Amino acid sequence: LAKTTQPISMDSYEGQEVNITCSHNNIATNDYITWYQQFPSQGPRFIIQGYKTKVTNEVASLFIPADRKSSTLSLPRVSLSDTAVYYCLAFDDKIIFGKGTRLHILP
Amino acid sequence: NAGVTQTPKFQVLKTGQSMTLQCAQDMNHNSMYWYRQDPGMGLRLIYYSASEGTTDKGEVPNGYNVSRLNKREFSLRLESAAPSQTSVYFCASSEYQDYGYTFGSGTRLTVV
Predict the structure, then answer these.
(1) Which residues in chain A have Cβ-Cβ distances shorter than 8 Å to B98?
(2) pLDDT of A54 strictly over 80
(3) Is B92 helix (H, G, I), strand (E, B) or coil?
(4) Where are the alpha helices (DSSP H) in B2-91?
(5) Which of A11, B54, B99, B104 is the most buried (most CB within 10 A)?
(6) Angle at A75 between CA A73 and CA A80, to 5 degrees
């Protein structure tokens, strides 16, 4: 069972780059790493997924080192609207969400 | 494009009552899931269905049953509601189990 560990909360300021790191020491060879964003009173929203190295889309970048025991979600130039909970998942046959990282963007 | 639709959005039950939460997706996804989220907590998987005709238990299946009615619909039933089942319930679907999920907007259930 791949289990992830990420910080409980983080604060940052508008315009900054935010990096959230997730540890997944027991990740299996075939597991992907996926990140979700959740706003209050809404369901989580898929942000990005990767297997190794670097993946980038219009919202974020995901960095995965060669050993794949951790990953870093990078949000460039955050705004107040990026205040949310961010979940890191490493695929298992029973998809497990942890408590996520509560990101608070300050003006 | 509706995505994942959950009904009802809100429900209040008395202890011991039963109800079924409905979920439907229009993306032709193979896999569907039910989660619950308690205040300040992450999501916990109740049941999932990897494909039409199959269902499996998640982390917290006790007190719940599910039915994968067809490829589109996956329902969650509470046979005898308890106050501990007060929560927000989310349904999700995905094309494959290892790919990004699409979530519904949730059902806020209160059991008194």
Answers:
(1) 30-32, 91
(2) yes
(3) strand
(4) none
(5) B104
(6) 130
End-to-end CA separation in angstroms for chain B: 36
* Cα–Cα distance, B4 to B21 (Å, whole number): 13
The CA-based dihedral angle spanning residues B75, B64, A5, A34, taken in that order and rounded to the nearest 10 degrees: -10
Q: How far is B90 from chain A (nearest CA, A)?
A: 7
Give the pLDDT mean for B48-56.
93
Average pLDDT over residues A20-45: 90
Give how far Cα B42 sits from Cα of A77, A88, A99, B24, B49, Å.
Answer: 26, 11, 4, 23, 20
Mutate to test the interface with B, among A33, A95, A102 (most CBs of B within 10 A): A95
Using the CB atoms, write b or e for B3-14: b if 16+ within 10 Å.
ebebeeeebebe
Q: How far apart are CA B93 and CA B101, in angstroms?
A: 5
pLDDT at residue B40, as a whole number? 77
CA B67 to chain centre: 10
Q: Are A83 and A103 in contact (CB under 8 A)?
A: yes
